[in-house]
Amino acid sequence: MIFSSIVIFTIMVVVGIIFALIRLAIGPTLADRVVALDLITTQIVGIIAVYSIAISNSTYLIDAITITILSFLGTVTFAYYLGIGGKP
Amino acid sequence: MIKEILTSLFLLLGGFFMLLAGFGILRFPDVYTRMHAATKSGTLGVTGALIALSLYFWDTEITVRAMLPILFTLITAPVAAHCISRSAFKSGVELSENSVINEFEQNQEISTDEQIK
């Protein structure tokens, strides 16, 4: 039962990542692209969690914490770039 | 047995919210509504996946390590969304034409009027 849930979860998250990648490609402004990147990193943390369940090994949880913090830093950096008058 | 059922339930819930986040970021009309979809649904999705992970392992150390990304996401996602939406509004990104209210601009006008008086 857990195996089929893992497969369904992976399919749903990959479809979500594909939607976010489409928005990253066609986004009219820079803010759209930054929001899409933020969503993609959140979904990658979910992929890491389900991969840890699939291999029954919790080594990669540290990477989930690191990716969360780095995504916040990247978003705030782009917000600062937009705030000081960068090209949108 | 009941642990497996709960793990599968939280996994499916998290995956459904992540799918909703992707669908919302593709279909909503402007930056601010897209940000609303991405932040809230993404936070719920990652919370569901990590709760499923801590239920699957059923271990104190791994549970504490799985609660840390949830905590960081719950703290940093609203702050990041606030920063990027404020910067987007200041850099001149238009609202959708279906929007009915723009409280930020009205507050700015009121405060500048008070400064003039």
Total number of beta strands of chain B: 0
> Order of SSEs of chain A, N→C?
HHH
Largest sheet entry of chain B: none
- Helix/strand-derived category of chain A reads mainly alpha
Our Rg estimate of chain B from Cα atoms comes to: 19 Å
What share of the residues of chain A lie within helices?
over 70%
Topology at a glance:
The complex is a heterodimer of chains A (88) and B (117).
Chain A: H1 2-26, H2 30-55, H3 61-83
Helix pairs in contact in A: 1-2, 2-3
Chain B: H1 2-27, H2 31-57, H3 60-90, H4 103-116
Structure description:
The complex is a heterodimer of chains A (88) and B (117). Chain A has 88 residues and is mainly alpha-helical. Helix content of chain A is 84%, strand content 0%. Chain A contains three helices and no strands. In chain A, helix 1 (2-26) runs antiparallel to helix 2 (30-55) and helix 2 (30-55) runs antiparallel to helix 3. The longest helix of chain A has 26 residues, at 30-55. The radius of gyration of chain A is 15 Å and the shape is flat. Chain A starts with a helix and ends in a 5-residue tail after the last helix. The relative contact order of chain A is 0.13. The model of chain A has no long low-confidence stretch (mean pLDDT 91). Chain B has 117 residues and is an all-alpha fold. Helices cover 84% and strands 0% of the residues of chain B. Chain B has helices at residues 2-27, 31-57, 60-90, 103-116. The mean pLDDT of chain B is 88.
